[in-house]
Write a structure and sequence with these properties.
Number of helices: 15
Radius of gyration: 21 Å
Largest sheet: 8 strands, parallel, barrel
Distance between the termini: 33 Å
Shape: globular
Length: 450
């Protein structure tokens, strides 16, 4: 059976380096009757939105099986579990608390803490309540205020039992995929919609941070952003410019306002009618200090120039791919970590998602996903290389704990280190889960100088 192997002197083998697994609410919870509708329920009900015409009504039945799942997490020996709260499960449409929904999370957090598992909570992992979408969703500035109210409800209920709060997960996906391209919920399109929603999401982050600082000052409070290293298709000046524009538009658009209080230069290159409406004081709210930055990474992206001087994606050819069709590029992982660290004054970093969808098959009760083990091995070594280069990385979360609803792709892709039989809901640890477990537990007797 393949293993994950790091250099003997790696800081990633120190007990001080945190290992965890991650999930999100809509992807695993099920129990639709226990919450209000989200934009993903509505999106799933529409034609030609989800590849297998599925939805999140049942998913992995985590609301029912949460105790079994906590035992599974504890059995891996990990230090932490990253989960998200379902906004429509804990807040009613009139702004009052759904106490049954909130109690689910209180019980879950209490059990994790009891087992000495650090709890990393993400407040928003894309499942906006549908009642807020009907008022404009993230195109409505008031949604940011509603998010601050929701943050107050969760922080008041869970407090500093939660080790870390992230305001948002991957606002790029919410804004660009959901409001600009329309391939994610709520299915809106247009550059102006994408840029406006992105600004309101960042504003929500800032308002949420204010609440967290007041309610949970001893927790680590920050945000989770996704990054894809932007490479040019050729060495031509036009393609190099395309890669630079893409990097600013997709990566730095979300980081730079938080760290420096400004949007990257590409913002000013958009027509005025496509630029976000920035009110006085907005950037001060967005750019408050954060305790940590969560980084999600899966692959690089290659860009070529278009005739009008913009950028377009060049699809990978003749290179190793995951089942998502994403190029396997661990060197690009190190590259972007080092690059971001050199360009910005960053707080400590946690790798909050990294993993791979593979074509898993159950054979005689086992899933021999050696390709996923190789992916984890190469990418954890990429993190090691970034740490060696001076990047302050405190921990790593494998995405994901279990197979789940993969958004617009439904249940056609499996990212888990635990296999889920959706007919029986049986969980089976894959070889990658066993390899991850071995790595985590190998730190027990490691002592590092310094």
């Amino acid at each position: 059976m393949p293993n994950i192997t790091l250099p003997a002197d790696s800081l990633l083998l120190s007990k001080d380096f945190l290992y965890g697994v991650a999930t999100s609410s809509f992807q695993i919870e099920g129990d639709r009757s226990g919450r209000l509708d989200s934009i993903w329920d509505t999106f799933c009900s529409q034609n030609n939105t989800i590849e297998d015409n599925s939805n999140g009504d049942i998913a992995c039945q985590h609301v029912e099986k949460w105790q079994e799942d906590v035992a599974l997490i504890a059995g891996l020996g990990v230090d932490a579990y990253r989960l998200s709260i379902s906004w429509p499960r804990v807040v009613n449409s009139d702004g009052t608390i759904n106490h049954i929904g909130m109690q689910f999370y209180v019980n879950l957090v209490d059990e994790l803490v009891k087992r000495n598992i650090k709890v990393f909570v993400t407040l928003y992992h894309w499942d906006l309540p549908q009642y807020l979408e009907e008022k404009g969703g993230w195109l409505n500035r008031e949604t940011a205020t509603a998010f601050a109210h929701y943050t107050d409800i969760v922080a008041s209920a869970l407090g500093d039992k939660v080790y870390s709060y992230a305001t948002l997960n991957e606002p790029f996906c919410s804004a660009y995929l959901g409001y600009e391209l329309g391939i994610h919920a709520p299915g809106k399109t247009g550059v102006a919609n994408g840029r406006k929603s992105a600004h309101h999401l960042l504003l929500a982050h800032g308002l949420g941070m204010k609440v967290l600082r007041e309610k949970c000052p001893s927790s680590l409070n920050g945000i989770v952003l996704n990054f894809s290293t932007c490479h040019s298709a050729t060495e031509s000046p036009a393609d190099k410019l395309a890669a630079k524009l893409a990097d600013e538009y997709h990566n730095r658009w979300y980081l730079q306002p938080i760290i420096e209080g400004t949007y990257p230069d590409v913002c000013d290159q958009l027509p005025v009618e496509q630029q976000p409406d920035i009110l006085e004081g907005d950037m001060d709210i967005i750019s408050q200090p954060i305790d940590f930055l969560g980084i999600n990474f899966y692959t690089r992206t290659v860009y070529k120039s278009t005739e009008n001087g913009w950028f377009d994606v060049q699809e990978p050819e003749d290179v190793p791919l995951t089942a998502m069709g994403w190029e396997i590029t661990p060197d690009a992982f190190t590259e972007i970590l080092v690059d971001l660290n050199s360009r910005y004054s960053l707080p400590p970093i946690y790798i909050t998602e990294n993993g791979a969808a593979m074509d898993d098959e159950m054979v005689e009760g086992e899933i021999a996903d050696s390709d996923r083990v190789d992916y984890f091995n190469s990418h954890l070594n990429a993190v090691h290389n970034a740490v060696e280069a001076g990047v302050d990385i405190k921990g790593y979360f494998a995405w994901s704990l279990m197979d789940n609803f993969e958004w617009a792709l439904g249940y056609t892709k499996r990212f888990g280190i635990v296999y889920v039989d959706y007919d029986t809901q049986k969980r089976t640890l894959k070889q990658s889960g066993i390899a991850y477990q071995k790595l985590v537990n190998s730190r027990v007797n490691v002592t590092l100088a310094g």
